[in-house]
Amino acid sequence: MKTGAIIVAGGTGRRMKSSLPKQFMTLGGKEMFVRSVEIFHGSDFVYSTVLVVHRDWINKAKEILLKRGLNSVMVVPGGESRQESVYKGLLSCREVGLEAIMIHDAVRPFFSRSQIPELLRLVAPGRGVVVTEGVNDTVYLVGNDEVLDVPDRNCLRLAETPQTFPYDEMLEVHKRAVEENILSSTDDAQLFVRSGGQVITVNSIAPNPKITTAFDFDMAELLINKGS
Q: A Gene Ontology molecular-function term (predicted)?
């Protein structure tokens, strides 16, 4: 199955409270987005890799990729939202002839490359696959700070990435969303299900945290040091 990977790295680092976008910060001496790119770029199962970054950081991203020996990675400008950035990444792959697309957050640098074949075996026409994590804590559904319901946590999953779909179908899903003025979805599986697709979940085989805050970053450094 001819597969592409889109690494979404369009954020500007507001929640990290840093002038440097968090995906450009170094973890264990290597930029976070580079760690995420290498997961897919180094896989025998991925034909092409696209990095989507804020337009102001394109040249810097290309410079870093060249230094890291990853200059074959395509770099495209992102949009005003994650949804728009993913769509731009999808559009950049139109001439490649992809059958499947894996969409991954650049700020999840710990996803295990060895799980890629499992995800690709499960993706099929009309069916996507998302990496998830089980919920260990009790979760409340609230309104105005009042507990309205306590969902069964066995039926809940934390959404992670990569999320994998048939390429042509996901491109059409994004195109339709724009036509219907849906512009700020934060999850590709949500759009896929809304369009009538099926999405199945697979729990990550390794820690796969999203690095969003300074605390997350410190914990990520600890993970890397432990791995070393």
A: 2-C-methyl-D-erythritol 4-phosphate cytidylyltransferase activity
Residue 51 tokens read as 């990095």
Report the chain's mean pLDDT, rounded to a whole number.
93
Q: How far apart are CA 40 and CA 113, in angstroms?
A: 7
pTM of the model: 0.94
Q: Residue 209 maps to which CATH number?
A: 3.90.550.10
Q: How many domains does the chain have?
A: 1
CA distance 61 to 34: 9
Domain interval for residue 206? 3-227
**pLDDT digits 0-9 by tens, 161-189:** 999 999 999 999 999 999 999 999 999 99
Can you spell out the DSSP letters for 109-162? TT--GGGHHHHHHH-BTTEEEEEEEE--S---EEETTEEEE---GGG-EEEEEE
